[in-house]
């Protein structure tokens, strides 16, 4: 993000909030995408405030995601803003897919001030059909706790490879597979679950994990 530039953001304050999560959007949709809105609403019901924001490319109406340095700068600005909005709340950061990956990269390069843990929803471990763990190399440079919520049908994160990454990270990482969910956390009808139930699971696990990190 260039000096002096700005992007849109949305602060959703939860009643009796116990934490504030800076929530970055995925590569193909902005902060007002139904997934982002639903997750923020469900987290608010569970006592977690959120700050959503647009990456500069999305703000400009472009379909091409920002370069990492630009995305990292936007994340740092959002974290700084969140700390000012609710200085008394424990601060967390993360996001969906691209947003989570960029947040983890930013944290690995230089710790995000006051951030206690990362919430990563659908971490894009590798491109579809090209299994690899190269995108996870930077995670070893992160000292704070990391929560990975990943669909078991996610084409961008082969479960066996993800478990391998989790093993390397040890106690710093918490992995919660979301049964039958794909990269968008959608489930098939035959799974016996609804997409809304999956979103509720994401909110339950995330809010419980943040409380556990705070109490620890």
Overview of the structural elements:
With 216 residues, this protein is an alpha/beta fold. Helices cover 36% and strands 19% of the residues. It is built from six helices and seven strands. It has a seven-stranded mixed β-sheet with strand order 1-3-2-4-5-6-7, sandwiched between helices. Helix 4 links the parallel strand 4 and strand 5. The termini are far apart.
Brief description of this entry?
With 216 residues, the protein is of the alpha/beta class.
Portion of residues within helices: 25-40%
Average pLDDT figure: 96
Report the order of strands and helices. EEHEHHEHEEHEH
Distance separating the two termini:
34 Å
How many helical elements?
Answer: 6
The secondary-structure class comes to alpha/beta
Q: Which regions have little confidence, pLDDT < 50, spanning 5+ residues?
A: none
Rounded to the nearest angstrom, the radius of gyration is 16 Å
Give the oligomeric state of the chains in this entry, treating copies of one chain as homo and distinct chains as hetero: single chain
Tell me what portion of residues adopts beta-strand conformation.
15-25%
Strand order of the largest sheet: 1-3-2-4-5-6-7
| SS elements, strand count | 7
Largest sheet: 7 strands, mixed
Give the overall shape: globular
